[in-house]
Each structure stands twice: as C-alpha cells, then as structure tokens.
Amino acid sequence: MGKLKAFGLFWYDFVIGDDPLVAVLVIAALAGTAALSTHTTASWWLLPVIVTLALAATLARAVRKK
Questions:
Q1: What residues contact 4, with CB distance under 8 A and at least 6 apart?
Q2: How far is CA 50 from the centre of its chain?
Q3: What is the DSSP letter of 60?
Q4: How confident is the model at residue 41, as a pLDDT?
Q5: CA-based end-to-end distance of the chain
Q6: Burial class (CB in 10 A: 0-12, 13-18, 19+), 57
Q7: Contact between residue 46 and residue 33 where contact means Cβ atoms under 8 Å apart
Q8: Distances in Å between the alpha carbon of 24 and those of 14, 39, 44, 61?
Q9: Helix (H) or strand (E) holding 47
Q10: Which residues contact 57 (CB under 8 A, 6 or more apart)?
Q11: In whole angstroms, what is the distance from residue 7 CA to residue 45 CA?
Q12: What is the pTM of this model?
C-alpha cells in the first residue's frame, strides 16, 4: 500500500471513524459556527448544542440496537 493511500485512509478513519453521522454533524456545526460568527458576536453556543444533540442521537441508536 502506498504511503499516500495509507495517509488518506488514516485521515478517513480518524475523521469518519465508526459513525459518519457524527462526523457530518460536527463538520456542519463548525461551518455553522464560522458562518454565524461573521454575522453576530455570540456564536460559541452553536457547537456545544449540536455536539450534544449528536451524542444523544448516537446513544439513542446504540440503545435501540441492543
């Protein structure tokens, strides 16, 4: 396996990991926080809210699987 391919696979596994939904939500939260910060001064609250909702969704799916 080439070093470039291994590097790409590492970052895919690091960012996506076990749950692609959480990765998408965190990236969306970061983008939303960045976009909101250009319009208002208080944009810090968006990231913890979305991360908390992502955690709740992940836990709900894990409990449902059992």
A1: none
A2: 9
A3: H
A4: 75
A5: 37
A6: middle
A7: yes
A8: 13, 23, 19, 16
A9: helix 46-65
A10: 21, 25
A11: 33
A12: 0.73
Question: What is residue 42's DSSP assignment?
Answer: -
pLDDT digits (tens, 9 = 90+) for 4-47: 999 999 988 888 887 888 888 889 999 999 999 888 778 889 99
Residue 59 C-beta-side C-alpha neighbours within 13 Å = 6
Is the distance from CB of 58 to CB of 19 less than 8 angstroms?
yes
- Token couple for 55: 């955690």
Q: How many CA atoms lie within 13 A of 13 on its CB side?
A: 6
**Who contacts 5 (Cβ-Cβ below 8 Å, separation ≥6)?**
none
